[in-house]
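Feature request, filed as a ticket because there's no other form

It would be nice if the structure record came with a short human-readable summary line next to the tokens. Right now we just get the raw output. Example of a typical job, pasted below so the devs can see what we mean:
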Amino acid sequence: MPDGRPEPDSLATHVGGRTCQCMESMLVFDREAVRRHRDRAAGTVELVADVLRDAAERLLDRLDDTNRRFVDALDVGGRGVVAPLLRARGMRVVSCDLSPAMAALNGGPSVAADEEFLPFAPASFDLIVASLSLHWVNDLPGALIQLRQALRPEGLLLASLPALGTLSELRTALTEAEAEIAGGASPRVSPFPELRDCAHLLQRAGFTLPVADVEDIRLLYANPFALLTDLRAAGETNAIRQRARSAPARALFPAALARLPVEDERVAVTLRMAVMTGWAPGS
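Raw output as currently delivered:
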């Protein structure tokens, strides 16, 4: 916006809950807004490629724990970062993303696809990687079931999600600042899943040997407004269906950012990444 303030929907990551597709009131996320945000971010995501690559490499480190050789991989929402890493490991890679513009960044075969309605035939891949890309899905159990069906017998899913504790510093700062300025606070960073829920989701979707663990990535900013810029650049802006449509008070974001903790003269926030691994059942 010309005055430098974020748009009303320009805050932080939100994690999908479990919903019933047939009940409109239960849908948490505006999927059309998610697509628009990712379309817009396709031109800016390079600004946050280092963070996305760090998260992807941590996820792909799990491949070093198995002697299984993977040939055909699906990259779900890799934002131009995951597919090159998989190809460097000698795999054939197909990429998909809700945004056609974002899917095209992957430098190889790609398709625009909704994670809730995947177009892939059963047993198409022996590896699926979803690095920080499933947290805007309304029906996460359903999406995981579709991913399992797209795997060959004994194929592997590697996925990561922001977990409870992610952006907790920003959540607290925004709540306190808005309560002080407006006398009340509206939710601007939605809940994230607990780690124990992640393994349960894999089990519920029919994966065997489901495992979930957590890694913390600490992000430091000399300029606190750069945090908001990075969230927007990554396509991680608010797409909750019930989000406020009016502009927040001009003083809100400066007041909130001033409350963030400081480490080594830089503001600090946490990305708590739940890493999920699960295998498709054998034939």
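Something like this underneath would help us a lot:
Residues 51 and 219 are 9 Å apart (CA to CA).
Confidence is low (pLDDT under 50) at residues 1-23.
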